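Lab notebook, bench 4. Still working through the backlog of constructs that have no structural model yet. Next entry is a single chain of 342 residues. Request: give me the structure tokens for it.
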Amino acid sequence: MQNRRVLLIYTGGTIGMITDPISGALKPFNFAQITKEVPELSKIKCEIRTTSFQHPVDSSNMNPEIWRELVSLIEKHYSDFDGFVILHGSDTMAYSASALSFMIHGLNKPIVFTGAQLPIGIIRTDGKENLVTAIEIASTYINGTPAAPEVSLYFEYKLYRGNRTTKLSSEHFNAFSSFNYPALAEAGVDIKFKKKYINESSAVLEPTFYKKMNNNVGVLKLFPGISRNQVAHFFKTPEMQAVVIETFGSGNATTKDWFLNELTLANKKGIILVNVTQCLSGSVNQTKYETGRGLEYAGVISSKDITIEAAITKLMFLLGNYSDISEIKKIYKTDLAGEITI
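Model written out:
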């Protein structure tokens, strides 16, 4: 078996911190010397190269510009490496993993996001295990084929499809989950890949890399007692082109005439409206109850079992790369990267 080559990309985040011996404060360490901090990496049977953003980004500052930078970096090095590991702050990791799943079409190599709840320089860190296993996953090929050729997210012994994940906890090591899709792999004594849940490697030699994202997307979270003025004011936001409506249960909302009228008016103005449930698991079904049918009549699109992170980034991708509203609506309903169950 040949040694695989993995590019380790550090964008920022907790995992890349160590304690300054003088001040005691946390600071980013030089990733070119990562084997000094994580000597276990030298035992992995693959060649690891590292690169990092000149100025590490706290994940709270993540945005489409940085996603473009990541996609460009992967495109530049795609033919030189067998897999990619992206170290990223956990707070918005699910958004970034979702975004890249839409921005890179035709993947035939693994791209694994990971991070940590504790800095790699802390003795109880979860970062070392996450990092080591993510690199093992990115470098694992079975009979010459990558074990997980898609954008994924590894955290606390589980590998998930990136655009199916949501961060659940700011305190526990098992910070992520994928409620509507099974884990792609589990790490124990061995790493067990669940082939039937993993996207097959693309037959295309070179994937298509998209750089355009349009962030004129809003999120309207419904709650009991939301007022007409609040909703009307929201839809008057300048340059708004698409709105994710976070509804109750299986996609339900108030049946008040004023609310449905506001949605109908927004739809007629060309604003794309999509329905995502506030529940962590389950699917939107707008025809199940009368409270959902009203949304259907108003022109709201069911998002099925998509996550809020995937819905937002999918709309950004579609708005950035398509101009016809009817075409965007049609494509939104389809499964582009395993983000929804058809």
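Notes after review: The longest helix spans residues 64-77. The first strand starts at residue 4 and ends at 10. Flag for follow-up if needed.
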